[in-house]
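Box S1 | Example of a co-folding query
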Amino acid sequence: MSVFGTRPEAIKMCPLVKELASREEIESLCCVTAQHRQMLDSVLEVFDVKPDWDLDIMTPRQTLSTITSKCLTGMDEAIDALKPDMILVHGDTSTTFAGALSAFYHQVKVGHVEAGLRTYDKYSPFPEEMNRKLVSSIADLYFCPTANNKANLQREAITDGLFITGNTVIDALKTTVQSGYRFATEELNHLPYDEKKIILVTCHRRENYGEPMKNIFLALREIAERNSGVELVYPVHLSPVVREAVDKYLRGAPRVHLIDPLPADEMHNLMARCYMVMTDSGGLQEEAPALGKPVLVLRRETERPEAVEAGTVKLAGVVQDDIVTMAERLIQDKNAYAQMAHAVNPYGDGNACRRIADAILWYFGRGEKPADYLA
Ligand code: UD1
Ligand code: UDP
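Box S1 (continued) | Returned holo structure for uridine-diphosphate-N-acetylglucosamine
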């Protein structure tokens, strides 16, 4: 039973739900917590996945404690009713942690998809670094996107049940990005892709709430005001905290398009056509390099060092002047841009779901152990 609740978990788990359903020996169940409501439903629609169970927990401005406690209570009922042999959780959200803890309370095996990412700073990203560490203590199987993620777990004395699979987000991208794609969001068909540099922006992380988010938005404003050759496109997350900060510091700036969250297929195709990406998102740090787009990360650190090492991702931090300087370098200096704009795939070859399904079948004595994915 795959358990997920937020937009990024859904984008990365829907391809797996489908892969599991395609295997004769597996009954693939899907339980959503709906920690996100609209942003989750949009992904389920794009991938045509229909949940077997829906906890429907989201409330406006929800706290970490309410998400966790509502997930735990709801999961009791779902596990009792659906009786899964294994629960799959993804990544590092509150849904992930509560899903794994609930599985443990019911003595159900746990597979952790996107296991082994670390910053080693328990407050950054907050609460995600702690969520993924706690899930590592509970899980039975670990599906690591990269060799580096596996090494992180081995350093924590986790030695059994480790697989390097690639990241399922690359599987998702393979199905969504199409040449000649026409956007349902009409505004996106008319962006000046050839004449101007389209910068795709997202920002939502809890540890950026307050001063860092203010600095980021003032930096974006400055970049737009000083560079007439750019257009910023920012699909704004539905979090009221984020939307308030956007209204206060960014709205009204020239050349900034503030739009609603995009369906995943629209987002991926926009990324494929943009000039560069500025983001504090985890998922975008994996997708943009695969599409050959430079990424400036609006955070102090990253748990995804692979693309930094490959040269397509740079940490821009959360200081206004630093962000402006780094962005303007990529906008104005062709060589600096060319050095970052090459496609790299440290996060997978699009076959992560197949490896994960094979590993689960092997675990239950029904097939060969899959070989590790080596980038
Ligand atoms: C959550 C995850 C974060 C992940 C992010 C992806 C936790 C603690 N955080 O953060 O790891 O990177 O999702 O986007 O698990 N809202 C809506 N509709 C939606 C979604 C959100 O209205 O479809 C609003 C609600 O008011 C909600 C708020 O956004 O209370 C915040 O959502 P929440 O899931 O608590 O936190 P995120 O910042 O989205
Ligand atoms: N995404 C999307 N629509 C948007 C913004 C993001 O479909 O308007 C996708 C994005 O391409 C990536 C995922 O959502 O696949 C990232 O989710 P998010 O940034 O919310 O969370 P994070 O990855 O930081 O946990």
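The first strand starts at residue 2 and ends at 4. The first helix runs from residue 7 to 21.
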